[in-house]
Amino acid sequence: MLPNLTLNVGLRWEYNPATTDKYNHLATFDPTAATSTPLPYLRVSTPQNPSIYTAPTRDYSPRFGFAYTPFGPKTVIRGGYGLFWDIKLLNVILNSALTAPFLTGFTFNQSTNGLPNINIANPYGGTSGGPAIPSASWVENPFRDGYVQQWNLNVQRQLFASSVFTVGYVGSKGTHLDRAYDINEPGPTASFTQSLRKYPMYSSINVRSASASSTYHSLQASMEKRFSYGLSFLVSYTYSKSIDDASLWNGSAVAVTNFHLERGLSTFDSRNRFVTSYTYDLPYGRGRQFGSASSTWINAILGGWQTNGIVSVQSGNPLDPTTGLQLSGTQTGTRPDVTCDPNAVTHDPSRWFNTSCFSNNFVGRYGTAGRNIIIGSPTRNFDFALLKNFALGKESRSLQFRSEFFNVFNHPNLDNPNVTTTSPTFGKITSAGVQDARASSRQIQFALRLAF
Fold this sequence. Notes:
Elements: E1 5-14, E2 27-29, E3 42-44, E4 59-68, E5 75-85, H1 90-94, E6 106-109, E7 127-131, E8 136-139, E9 147-160, E10 163-182, E11 205-228, E12 231-244, E13 264-265, E14 272-281, H2 296-302, E15 305-314, E16 318-319, E17 337-338, E18 358-359, E19 374-375, E20 379-392, E21 394-406, E22 443-451
Parallel strand pairs: 8-11
Antiparallel strand pairs: 1-4, 2-3, 4-5, 5-9, 6-7, 9-10, 10-11, 11-12, 12-13, 12-14, 14-15, 15-20, 16-19, 17-18, 20-21, 21-22
């Protein structure tokens, strides 16, 4: 089209067939099958109909990208759009094989005289309380494939011969994403009874649904210096916000009749993230700025050293408050009431957020707190390495000595606070470096690497 404009356009089609079982051991809850046997409302796969849902056949994925240099070769404007389809996890369908009528639960009562009658040798020694109320798995039909639309627009500018600065916008939108919830959950009530469920012959009816959605918007900037004069580095910063109503494929919902209450910050949202990585050849030794005429022994000891490192700083992730009680009477977790911004406080491990913003003074309804409204502790980490290469005669053989220091300054990266209102440690942080092994205490390791 134009000498300074490059376009890339494409279209992809894919088909993800429905999961089947060799022995047709798949079953799904079906509200139209009231007279099915051996249990009502169950549709079981058969040799004639081996799948329990209809797979989509119109998964088209358009692609578009461009690069434009309107101001000369040193400035490039780039952009793109793509649609990408998801594939159903096998674990989602396996629930339909580990449910009624293929799986039946029984309850066994432990003895009351202090002498155990249930043990590994005799796991069914207790008095049988009869079969447990069965649960069921419901796979939506049709079970649509989720997809994400991604787009970006950025400007890239060459500042020096080996340095490039990039700034741009990156966004995405997820549609028909997987979620799980109990459709047999009763409405809020002061006292739960099994008869309040819509289908009282079942306990939980775990629905696998393609009804979740997400949005992501970010400003991303980076400065990159390619290797020259013994130095290369990459500095990047991202300011972003991710919102969804289900961050996990098997996550639960508090109110199954109002998914809008689940709309909030994504569990993995991190508002600010700064990362710097570098590699630097120390300027002493043969072929370098200083000491190029040093003796063999001096060069072997002082020459040829290299250092590299990674600095990471990011905001904390959102946390979901819970009461740890069944206040709503729905047999699912209940969020507390909230009266103020819990994050508007000076953070301290003994009181990371304002615990007085929450209360549990209600019964028979949902709490007013939204999902993921507490922000956890940030992460700061610096990994450092010092290494040296020793030539072993031929150019193809060398021995590398490495010394690596993870979290070199031993900065305490605090774990997340307790967010259960009824816990004695509510709002407190009682550990560091446990929840994320990458943010643990300082670790040092040495290594020798032989290349030939």
